[in-house]
C-alpha cells in the first residue's frame, strides 16, 4: 500500500467537492498545506481520517479525499477518541475552531489531552465564530465588538496553549495560516509526535474578523512581534537584533550586540515544562515588548492511551485466555434440571 | 406441626444495610434453584451509599419469589417477612399479606432501634403486631452469640454471622439442605477458616433452632417446578445485557467498543464489560455522556460495534449525538436503563417513563428502532437483537431496560453460543469501482466502508446528504426524499420480525392486556390467574415498540377492549391510540415500584364490568 | 402600454450574495408599506457565508408579496422574477408562474456566468427563455455605468449601485415614489455624500429607463390595502420575539436574563437583545447550550426572568436541564427557532419537525407547556404569553418558532406598552411563618422566594420532592402524587386560554384545516380562496400545542374531516389522533420550504373528493 | 440585617434534614467548617446561596440553612454563573466533586474561571465517584483498581490546580478535610477573594477510596509530605527541618541548618503566576521528595465579570437613556394607515 502511496501527490488528497469558504479565507492556505504534507506522511491514504465538529473550519473533511467525518459541534475530539481506540492503526486528524474546540468542545479537548491518545488536533483560531456569522469566541480579546457584543466583549479570553498545558498536553505548538512553510513543518511535527498534538493555527477570517493577527502575520511587523522557536537554539527575533533572556523567572527582551550575545540567551528546550509555561504566557501583554512564540513550545513522551488499553486486552488474554463465549454465557454457577 | 404444600412463596429479607441481607437472599435463592424451584428475585437498596444505621432510609431488602410452578415476578405481597430491626418492619409491614408471617430479630427492637425507626421508644411493637399477624420473634443476636460461645472470634465478627442464623432457620422451615451454602462459605472464606466455620456453625444453629421449637410453627413444602430440562444459571438484567453485547460482537465478528459514563442503574453494565477484556472488549469511561455516545459513534465509524448505555438524564444528553448517528447511518446501540424521573428523580427506583423520549425525543425527523427487554434474562437476547438490527440495518437502536429488570434476577436456561443468531455486517464491496456510501439495498440499507479499507475513502456528516453519493445537499426534493427513505428504512425492519405470539390466551376475545418491558411478569401472572377464573382475557407483550410489528394492528382490533399497564403516566398507550385509533385504556403506576399482579387483575375486572354493562345496555 | 390593476404581486429579487439583493428587497418593501400595501417578505440566504460568486450555491434571494388585500405569506409562485445573473435564473426559474415575467441583468449572462451557473457557456439562455416567458433583459451594469459616467467614483463603487437601477425600474413599473429610498440613501451614506448621490442617480436612471422603454411593458397598479387604521412598523420574527421578551420583563417587573449560545436561525435574538442593555437586559453568551439553559435557570432562581433560545441540535442539548426546571418549578422560557433536521440537517432552511421533541423529548414524566408563533409579528405576543405562563404558573415554557418566521417580516400594527397584559409573579409572602416552597395555590402553582429575601431560605433540586415541603422524598405514593400534580398543573394552564376562534369559516362543517406555527399564511390563503369557490372548509390555527385548549375537542368533532398540514413528516397529527381518536389526515412537506397555498388547496380538494365519494357510496 | 446576623451561630446554618453521608465520610468535616465560618462572613443569611451538581458532595446544599440548589450533574458552575449575574449581591458557593466538577462539568468550570465571576468553588476531591458507588474519576491515579477499572485505571489524571491556572483562574488554593483550622482559613480566604476562587479540598471517601490522602493527612507523615504556604514566608516543612529553594526553575528540597537558612529559601509570593505554576506541579512525582503544597498558591485581582456586565448596563442607560418600551416596540421606522 505505502508503495502505491509514494506516487501520490497533494492533488490526490483533494475531493471533487467545491470548496465553499469565503474568498480570501485563511482556511484555504491551511487546506493547501495539509494536502501538501499528506504524501510525505508515509501513511496509506485509506488509513488517514479527518474528524471535525461544526464551523467554517470544520468543513475541512469534505475537501480531503480520505476517510472523514463532519460530526457535531464540539465533539470532534470525542469522536476521534472512539475512532482511535477502535482502529489504532489510523492517522487521526481533528480539525476544530476556537468555538468548536474551546467553547462547546472545551471539555472533550482537555480530556483527550490528558489521556494522550495519538491524535493530531488542528485548532483553527480566528478569534470569532465564523459559520454563525460573527459572534465573539472564547479567544476574542476583551473589548471586541461583534454581533453579540455590540458594546465590546467582557469575557477574559482563554490562552489556548496555557490551557492545553494545564491539561497536561504532551505536545503544544503554534503556527499561522500566512506562513505556509512553518505550517508544514508544524503539521509534520504534529504527525510525528506520538501522543496528542495540539497545534494552534492563527487563521484570518477576512469576513468577520479581518486582520486579527495582522501584527503577527504581516511581513513588516512580523519580525518584531513573533518569535520562532527551535529546540536547542537561543530565543532570537527582530531579524537577529533582539533576544530573550530569563531574568529569574521573567523573560526579558535584550538587544543583541554590545551587552548581550546569543550565548547569554534563553536556549529553547522543548522538554522543559516550566519554560513552556512561561512561553505560553508571552501572550497577554504586548506592551512588555515580548514577541509571541511560534513553533513547538512543549513536547513530552508519555504512554499512549490506546497502547495502555491494548496492553490490558493483551494481558487479560494472557491471564484468562482468549474469551470463550460459552463459558461467559454459563458463568460460574450453573445447575441442571432434568 | 403442620406441613403445608404451597405452589409459591414470596419472602422479603430486610434489615440494615450492614446486616448481610443481600447475601442471605441470594444464598436462599441459589439453594432454591438447585432444589429445582423456579424463582425471581429483586434487591431494594437504600438510596444512600450508607444511610445511617437503624433508620428507615437505611433499610436494605431482598425479595424472592420461588415456587413449584413457573415464576414470573419477584412477587407481590409478601408471605414471609424477615425483619432484622424495627426500621425494616416499619418500611415493609404494609407489604405483608393479611395472613402473612413475620420473623423478627427481637434484638433489633430495643429502644434505640425503635426510636431510629420512628416508633415510640417505649412501645412493644412486636406484641402489638401479634394481635393482627403471626409473628415469630427470636433474639438472633443472642442466639448467634450463644452458638459461637466457643469461637475465638471477637464480638464484632461473631455478630456479623447473624444473618446465617436466619438463613439456617428458613432452610429448616422450607426443608432445604445446607450443603450449597456450606460450600459457598467454605470457598468464600477459604483464607479465613475461622470465619467460615463460625458462619457454618451459626447456619446449623439456625436450622436446629427450627427443629427445637418446631411444634409452634408451620412448615411449608414447595416442590420442584416442572422446568424445561437443561442447564440453568442465575442472571440479572444488567449481566444479561452485558454478555448479550459480547455475544453479539462475537457473532458479528466486530470488536465491541463500549463508551459510557457511570449512572445508576446502568453502571453495572460498564463494570461487567470491563471485566471481559479477554474478549477484546474495549470499555471507555468517558468524561460525560456526550463523549460516551460520540466516542461510540467514532468507534463504529472505525469499524467496531459501538455501544453506549445510560439512564434518563444521561440519555437526554445523548440525544443530539443520536441524531447524528441517524444521519450517518452507522450501527450504534444505546441502552437506556430507565429509572424514576423526571430530572434526577428517584435514581434508585424503577420506571418506564422514557418511552416517548426514546421514540420522539430528537430534533428533526429522526426515527430509530426501539426495543424493550421484559425480564432479567430476556436482556440477553434483546441485546443481541438490538446489535443485529443496528449492524444489519446500519442504524442506531435504542434498547429499553429499567431498574427493576437491571437489578432483578432469575434462573435462565442459557443457550449455546453456536445457536445464537449470526450477524452479517453489510460490508462495502470495494472492487475498484466508485464507492457510493449512501447507495442502498432492497432493505434501504447502505454499505459500510471502514478506515483502513483502500478505495472506500468517503466523508459523512450531519448535514443532509444527497441520495447515493452522500454529498452535502440543500436540494429541497432530495431532503424530502431522504427523510422518507430514513423513515421507510426503519419501518422495513419490521418485515424481519417473527410473527407475534400471545403470552397468554387466544388471539381474539374480550380483553387484551398489552404490555411492554418489565410489566411482563405481573401481567402474565394476572392474566393466567384470571383465565383460571374463566375471564376472557389475553396477554400480548411487545418487544418492538418502534416500529410496531406489522401484525399488531389486526391483533389489537380482534379484541373488544385493550388495556395497557405501564410504570409511567401512559406512554405506549399514546403511540397505540395514535397509530390504530383504538380506545386503548391506560393503567398507570408511578411509584418507582413494579406492578403487582393484583393491581392488574383489578383493572382487568373493571374492564370486564364495563364490557358487561355495555353488553347489557 | 397597458396598466393592469392587480390585487397582489409576488416579486423575487435574486442575484449574487454581493449584489445587494436584501437591501433592494427591503427598500421595495418599505416603499410598498408606506404606500399602504399589505405585504410579507422572506429572505433566502445561501448556506455558505460567502459562497463562490456566480454559482447557484451563492444566490441570495428576497421574496416579497404585496397587495391591496390582506397578505399572509411571502407568496407562492412568483409573478416577477428579478435575476442579476445566470445562477439566479437557474435556481429560481421553476418558481416562476407560467405567465410570470422575468427581469434579467444581461451582464450576468456572459460566458463566465453561464458556466458558473451550469449552463453551456455558448447558450443564449435568455433568448431561449423568451419562447416560453415574458423576458425583459437589460444590461444593468452598462446602464449603471452610463448613468454614472460623470461620477468621480471608481468602477467598483459605481458597479455597487447597480441594484438601485433595478429598484428604480421596479418603482416605475409599480408607479411608486422614490422618496423613501432617496431619504434612506441620504441617511445611510450621510458620511459619504458621493456614494449617496451616485446611488440616487442610478435609482432615478432606473426609473427613467422605465419611462423611456415604456411602450413594450405592462405596468401594474396595486392599490393600497384596506388595513386597519393605526401606526405600523415592519418586523421580523426574531425581532418580534426579542422585543416581546423585553416587554414581558418590563410588564412583570423582572430583569431579563438571556443565556444563549449562537446557532442559526436563533442567533439574531441574541444580537437584538444585546443591543438593549439600557432596558437592563443581561445577555450571556454561554460556552454551550447546556450552560445557556442552566445559567438561565440559575438566573430564574436568583429572581430574574430566565430565557434561553436555540435551534434543533441546541435544544436537544438542553433537554436534561429543562427536566430540572420542571422539577424546580421555576419560570423559564425556552425558544426553539426550528430549522431543517435531523442532526445538523439543513441549518439555513425552515422546518416544523421539533414539535414532538418539544412535547415528549425529556426523560421521565416531564410535561411542559408548548406554544407556537404563527407569523413574524405574532412572535411578539407569543413571547409575552410564554413569559406570562412561565412566571404566573412557575414552569418552563417552550416557544416554537422556525426559520421561516424568524427571518420573514411583515407590517405590524404594534400595540401600546400600556395595553400589554400585566404579569404577576407569585412572590412568596414571607411574613415570618414557615415558607413551604412546594405549597400550591388553586392553580397548583407554588410561590417564589428569591435569594436576598429573609425568611425564604430553602433548597430545591432535581430529586423527587415531598409535597409542600419540597424536601427530598423517596416515598412511592408521594412520587405518584407529584407526577400527577405536575401534569395537572400544566393541564390547568388551559383554563386561562381565551376561547378558540376560527381563522376562516364556520365552527362546524365538512372539512377543517388545522394548523400550527408558520403554516398559518398558506392555510389562510388557501382556505379563503376555496371558500370563495364555495368549498365548505374552515381554518383553525393552534397557538397552544400543549396542553391543548379545552374547547378543541368539540370543534374537531364538528367536522367530517380534519386535515393537518405540517412542514414535517406528521407530528401534530399524532398528538391529535392520540388525544381525540379522530382520523385526522396529515399533509406533509419536508423540503426546508414553506407550503404554497396551492398545495394546501389541492389537499383540501382531495378531501372533498373523498367526502363526496363516501356520501355517494 | 447584618446586625441580626451577628447573633447567628453555626447551628443556625444547619437544616432539619438528616445528613446522609456514610459514617466517617470526610464530607462531614467540611460541612462543619463551612457552617462554622458562615457567621463570620458578615453576609446576611438570606444572601448566601449554595449551588451543587450531583454526587455525594453535592448533597451539601440540603444541609445548609441558606438558599440552595442541588442542580444536575456537572452544571453547578453554570447555574451559579446565571445566579450571580442575576443577583450579584449574593454570596455564591459552588460545591462540586472531582467527577461533577472535572469530568462532566470540566468545561463550565474552566469557563467560569476565565470569566472571573465572584463565586467560591469548593471542589471535594476524593479521587473517586462516590455516589455511583466507586468508579475512578479524572483525579484517580493511574493504576487505581475500581469497579470500572478492574485492571487499573489507564487515564492520566488531571492536576486540578494546574488546570485551573491554565484556565486563567484568579485564585487557586488547596486544603484537606482532616485539617479543620486550615480549611477554615482557606474558606475565609476564598470568600474574601473578589473573583472566582477555586479551592480544592482533599476529602476522604472511606467507603470506596479510603486513605487516598493518607500520606498527606495522617499525623505522622504529614509534616514531610505537606507544605503550608503563607504569602511572604519561606517554603519550610518537615517541622522546620527542611525548606525549598528554586534552583533555576526547579524546586529543590534542602535541609535547614548547616548549609541553608530560611533566608535562602523560596519566599512564597501568591501573586507570581510562574511560581504558582511550579507549585501546582509539585504534585506528580513523590520520589523527588517534594511535599505537596497547601494554602493559597495563586491570587490575582482581575475585573469581575458581573461588574463589567453591570458597567455596560449603566453606560447603555447613560448613552441611550433608560429603556422606553413604547419606543422599542415602535422601532425607528413607522408609518400610519388612516
Ligand atoms: C449544538 C450546536 N450549537 C451551535 C451550533 C451553531 N454553530 C455552528 S458553528 C459555531 C461556531 C463556529 O465557530 P468556530 O468553531 O470558531 O469555527 P469557525 O466558523 O470560526 O471556523 C456555532 C456556534 C451548532 N451547529 N450546533
Ligand atoms: C447526567 C448524569 N450523568 C451521570 C450521573 C450519575 N452520577 C451521579 S454523581 C456521579 C459522580 C460523582 O462523583 P463526584 O462528583 O466525584 O462526587 P462524589 O460522589 O465523589 O462526592 C455520577 C457519575 C448523573 N446523576 N447525571
Ligand atoms: S466566515 Fe470567516 S472563517 Fe468562515 S469561511 Fe468566511 S472568512 Fe473563512
Ligand atoms: S460514598 Fe464516599 S464520598 Fe460518598 S458519602 Fe460515602 S464515604 Fe462519603
Ligand atoms: Mg472561529
Ligand atoms: Mg468524587
Automatic annotation (TrEMBL), chains A, D:
GO terms for molecular function: oxidoreductase activity, acting on the aldehyde or oxo group of donors, iron-sulfur protein as acceptor; thiamine pyrophosphate binding. SUPFAM superfamilies: Thiamin diphosphate-binding fold (THDP-binding). Residues 54-201 form the Thiamine pyrophosphate enzyme TPP-binding domain. Keywords: Oxidoreductase. InterPro entries: 2-oxoacid:Fd_oxidoreductase, THDP-binding, TPP_enzyme_TPP-bd. PANTHER family: 2-OXOGLUTARATE OXIDOREDUCTASE SUBUNIT KORB, 2-OXOGLUTARATE OXIDOREDUCTASE SUBUNIT KORB-RELATED. This is 2-oxoacid:ferredoxin oxidoreductase subunit beta. It comes from Phaeocystidibacter luteus.
Automatic annotation (TrEMBL), chains B, C:
InterPro entries: 2-oxoacid/accept_OxRdtase_asu, PFOR_II, Pyruvate:ferred/Flavod_OxRd, Pyrv/ketoisovalerate_OxRed_cat, Pyrv_Fd/Flavodoxin_OxRdtase_N, Pyrv_flavodox_OxRed_cen, THDP-binding, Transketo_C/PFOR_II. Keywords: Oxidoreductase. Residues 18-207 form the Pyruvate/ketoisovalerate oxidoreductase catalytic domain. It holds the Pfam family POR. Residues 510-578 form the Pyruvate:ferredoxin oxidoreductase core domain. One of its GO terms (molecular function) is oxidoreductase activity, acting on the aldehyde or oxo group of donors. The keyword Transmembrane helix does not apply. Residues 455-468 have a biased composition (Basic and acidic residues). The keyword RNA-binding does not apply. Residues 257-471 form the Pyruvate flavodoxin/ferredoxin oxidoreductase pyrimidine binding domain. It comes from the Bacteria. GO terms for biological process: response to oxidative stress. Transmembrane segments: none annotated. This is 2-oxoacid:acceptor oxidoreductase subunit alpha. It comes from Phaeocystidibacter luteus. The lineage of its organism: Bacteria, Pseudomonadati, Bacteroidota, Flavobacteriia, Flavobacteriales.
